[in-house]
Amino acid sequence: MDSGWRYRVASVAGVVVLTAIAVALVNNATFQSIATTVPIFNRLPADPPTGSEFTFELLVTIAVVVSVFLPLYKPRPRRILDAVALAQKRVLVAVLVLATIGYFDYTYRLPRLTVVLVTPLLLIALPAWFVWIRKRPSSNGERTIVVGDDLQVIGEVAREVDGTLLGYLCPTSVVATTERTEAIADGGISPGGLERLGGLSRIEDVLVEYDVDTVVLAFEHADRAEFFGALDACYEYGVNAKVHRDHTDSVLTASGGVGALVNVDIEPWDIQDYILKRAFDIAFASVGLVALSPVIIGIVAAIKVEDGGSILYRQDRTAVFGETFSIYKFRSMIENAEDGTGAKISDEDAGGVDPRVTSVGRVLRQTHLDEIPQLWSILRGDMSVVGPRPERPELDSDIQTGVVDWQKRWFVKPGLTGPAQVNDVTGKEPGEKLRYDLEYVRDQSFSYDMKLVSRQVWSVIIDVIVAYRTS
Q1: How far apart are CA 302 and CA 94, in angstroms?
Q2: Cα distance between residue 103 and residue 109, in whole Å
Q3: What's the pLDDT tens digit per position in 113-139?
Q4: Which segments of 78-220 does DSSP mark as H helices, in order?
Q5: For residue 261, what are the β-bridge partners?
Q6: Is domain 143-266 given the CATH code 3.40.50.720 in the classification?
Q7: What is the pTM of this model?
Q8: How would you classify the pairing of strands 415-417 and 214-218?
Q9: 425 neighbors 333 (Cβ within 8 angstroms)
């Protein structure tokens, strides 16, 4: 089925009809009598609703399922396994919502047997429907546009495009400052006869107006916010995104495959995973600050008793797309430790002894308790619990001169912990640290976050035990 309103209508209609059929089926007396012969169901009351009770149950179930499936109504090209996985994930969320509704005691609450029996039906029927109607390439070939920030790169990439090439988008300032195209304005013709469809701000309008199937990203620097804005628009409107192997960072593409143009390998967080991640960040930081409040008081007292200096140490760190934000740590070094030397990686990261670190600070670092104030940065949204550890801007600049692609770590929000930390890799090993960080950039998901958090919590417990025994 073609993209656009036909797909949206078909997807919504299919969800409504299949959900209604499933609810009607599980409320059939014969079906319920058969189902309750199964041991796991025979303890649930089989009392099919009638009249207004059934109508209410039907409408509530349809409303919940239709609402939860909202992201799947976008006509985006999907592989069969992707369509199945996404649809099944939405079914499970819908069932959770229905179970929550059924928990409350009101006149027409949803029977538990209905929720239990409708689950396997929807897990089969709805994924099958979205596989059936998933977007296919148009019969006239892919309708493609090129989006970028450099006209020379756009021209090179355009020559590799198969199918119908509609035109390109790029900033007006790029057109105005390029000698070969000074006279080009909106609607003008670029070298090679490619039409300019507007600036980057028009990408959403162009995707809809021209019924675009594929966007080829031709940015000179793939770590720019504009790149990810264009990529996000592609996924929002169900458009396939591709890049040229020679004009993008390799972290964005799969290692295998043939051809000059390849699919982007990094997808934005699924909205469900994003909500779960942010909810977990808030819960983790809030519980951590409350639970550790006695420890915080003890740390404050220990720092004051040792040298009477400041409690917290403020640092600027690099965030998404190279921007900076402020984090706070419990001071673990002598006051003004970096006066005259500037920012540098501590010798302790390489297993040595840093004379600037205080006695209390050495314990704080060994047990990671100096990081507690960063829970506030997580609550503020500057950081996440899991992500590449942010470096100081000065150190970032130094590392970039010796480590290719270090800036790719900026593609995601920095974290309190990450793959490099749980594998005991520090800034003294930038190449190895980058390998772990890019692994996270590629494989980020809520389930992956939970694995890393579990490993980090266990590691901290071990470090605290070791520090206690050696103190």
Answers
A1: 50
A2: 8
A3: 677 778 888 999 999 998 888 754 444
A4: 80-103, 112-133, 151-158, 172-177, 203-209
A5: 244
A6: yes
A7: 0.52
A8: unpaired
A9: no
The span from the CA of 191 to the CA of 180, in Å, is 8
How much is the pLDDT for 35?
52
Q: What mean pLDDT value characterizes the chain?
A: 75
The token duo for 436 is 């772990």
Helices and strands, number each (H, E), in the chain = 17, 10
Per the listing, tokens 């220990």 go with 302
Residues in the chain, overall count: 471
Geometric angle at alpha carbon 264, from 140 and 11, rounded to 5°: 55
Rounded Cα gap, residues 84 and 90, in angstroms: 10
Look up residue 292 and give its DSSP letter: T
Contact (Cβ atoms closer than 8 angstroms) between residue 273 and residue 376: no
Share of the chain above pLDDT 90, in %: 12
Residue 415 has which token pair? 């974290």
Dihedral angle, C-alpha 459, 462, 466, 471, nearest 10 °:
90
Work out the number of other CB atoms within 10 angstroms of the CB of residue 21: 12
Q: Using the predicted structure, report yes or no on whether residue 446 has a pLDDT greater than 70.
A: yes
3-state helix, strand, coil in the chain (%, to 5): 55, 10, 35
Give tens-digit pLDDT for 422-442: 888 876 676 777 777 777 777
Confidence of residue 104 (pLDDT cuts 50, 70, 90): low
| Strand runs labelled E in 193-320 | 196-198, 214-218, 240-244, 261-263, 312-318
- List the domain boundaries for the chain: 5-133, 143-266, 272-470
Say which range, 136-140, 207-211, 224-228, 448-452, has the weakest mean pLDDT. Answer: 136-140
